[in-house]
Amino acid sequence: MKVNEPRHSIVFVTMNESGARPLIDTLRQEEFAVEVRNGNHEALDGGDLRGAELLVFDRGRFSLEELSTFPRVRSVYTGPLMLLIEQIDDMLQVLLYEQGVDDLLVKPVNHLLMLARIRALFRRNGRRPTPENLLFNGLEINRGLRRASYLGEEIPFTSREFDLLWHLANNACTTLDRDHLYKAVFGIEYNGYDRSIDMYVARIRSKMAPYSNLATVIKTVRGTGYLFAAEH
C-alpha cells in the first residue's frame, strides 16, 4: 500500500474486546483503519457510519430471535457486513444472508482466511476514488493546488500541516491512530514517543481557530489519536 493512499476503514463491533484483540491487531497490521465499538448492534446507535467501509460483528452463539438485528443495522448502513459467529447450521446461515449479512465466518477464525474474505468484499464493492477537492462547512481543501481556504480566504498551512490536514479530512469521521498518521505524514514507522503529530495538530487547530465552524473540527480521541469531525 502506498503511504498516501487512504486505508479501508472498518467498524468492529464486539462484546468481548479482549478476546477479539488478536483479530483487531491483525487487521491493523494489514493497514486497515479499525474503530472498535463494544456491545451488540446497539453500539451503533447514534454512531456515525459514513466513514465505515465495512462492518464486522463479532458474536458468540446466534439465535433466531436475534435476526432482527440486521434489518435495523441496514436501515443506517448500506456497505458490506461480515459476521463472526460460533457454531451455526445451514438454515441459520441462509436466514442471515437473507437479512443483510454479506459474509460470515465460524469461530475460531483463521486470520488469513478472514483477511482474504475482507479483501474480496472490498473488491466486490469497489473503492471510492480519492477526490482532489474536499469541502466541509465552508472549508475547501484542494490536494492538487495544496491549498486550504475558508469561504475563499486562504489558510496558510505549511507542507506538513497540509499533508496531515488532508489525510484527516479525506478519512473524515474515522478515528486515526498516531501510528497511522505518523506513517502517512512522514513516511516512516512511528517510534512510540515522538510527539510531532500532536504538535502539527495543535498548529492546524491554531490556524483554524479564528473560523467558528472550524474551531473544533479536529477531535482528540483519548488514548487513540484524532478524528476529523466536520460534515460535507
Automatic annotation (TrEMBL):
Residues spanning the signal sequence: none
GO molecular function: phosphorelay response regulator activity; transcription cis-regulatory region binding
Domain OmpR/PhoB-type: 131-230
InterPro entries per UniProt: CheY-like_superfamily, OmpR/PhoB-type_DNA-bd, Sig_transdc_resp-reg_C-effctor, WalR-like, WH-like_DNA-bd_sf
Keyword entries, A-Z: DNA-binding
GO annotation terms (biological process): regulation of DNA-templated transcription
Coiled-coil region(s): none
Entries under SUPFAM superfamilies matching the protein: C-terminal effector domain of the bipartite response regulators, CheY-like
Residues of the DNA-binding region: 131-230
Name the UniProt record assigns to this protein: Two component transcriptional regulator, winged helix family
